[in-house]
Amino acid sequence: MNNAQLTSYLNNGIKDLVSGVLKSTLSNPKESAFLLKFISSADRNAKRREAYESEGLHVPAFLIASITNSCNLFCKGCYARANGICGDKSAKNLLPAEKWADLFNQASDFGITFCLLAGGEPLLRKDVMTEAAKKPEIIFPIFTNGTVIDDECVNLFDRSRNLIPIFSVEGEKEQTDERRGTGTYDKIITAIKTLSKKKVIFGASVTVTTQNLEEITSDDFLGNLNDLGSRLIFYIEYVPADGQTELAPTEKDRKYIDEKLNILREKYPKMMFLSFPGDEQYIGGCLAAGRGFFHIGPGGAAQACPFSPYSDTDLKKCTLKQALSSPFFRALQESGLSGGVHDGGCTLFENEAKVIECLKNCGKRTEDVT
After folding, report:
1. How confident is the model at residue 89 (pLDDT cuts 50, 70, 90)?
2. Which domain, by its residues, includes 330?
3. Between 20 and 30 A from 334 (CA), which of 20, 75, 193, 296?
């Protein structure tokens, strides 16, 4: 699937996704009103991306932005800590809120439809949340550990329906607390129930490992989330950034998830299920490096992917358009690492040496841009 075909495919997929979520919110007037308006915005965004495609510039539908390197938890196997996106030191060299506001404006102009906010713990940057709330034509899924949600956050989510909290869980209480710390699960459930009273739509991000595969696809787990009001489920395959390869799903596990998703989508029609990188096999391979998305680090580096934090472009000094035209991103796509045959797992992470070689061939030293 070439970039033009991918643009068309994702445009149709986004429309189906939003329409599907809308059907599940018919008893929620505030959410339904927002989504009806957003569908018009999504159509305009799609036309903008198609126009840029016809001019030779491929614009992805998604961005991933790690807006802080601070976090209040120390989760086992955290890729952000392993990759240096998140650390123990106080936040330094972060993009200020006004720069994020500028990037969100640029994203809107290009027709980018979704900007996933991550970290660290993104809710520690309420200044950036406030700027994101001003762009209702973009949906901001916010991947949060759920432990710092206060009344101010609840009110912001209630006012700004384009901000969608996505709670990170590992399964039920035992699995979640084992990886994220004792008491974390109860805090997440408390936050979810508080938001549910306001009828704020939310989702869950579930790390798929060899240890929780059956639990996270069980009726007990998903039925509880469905009853609480979850409308989005992201299955994110564990990437062994900390060396714990025994937790990484095998090809057999990936096949199990893929087959199970077909059943779950029928069984839970109010919830939308997305699998990463599993779903990439249906759209021509890895979506990183600007093909379907790219990652912006806390300090502004435009990186191919959160799991492959290499870059030749600094958004403190350039525009999103320049980042989209990155020689490094282009090299990754031309090499087939992004958009090539998808054999499961994270392609860029598993081919780190080839990624670094692409970067060197673009004239960059890896120590200057990671």
Report:
1. low
2. 295-369
3. 296
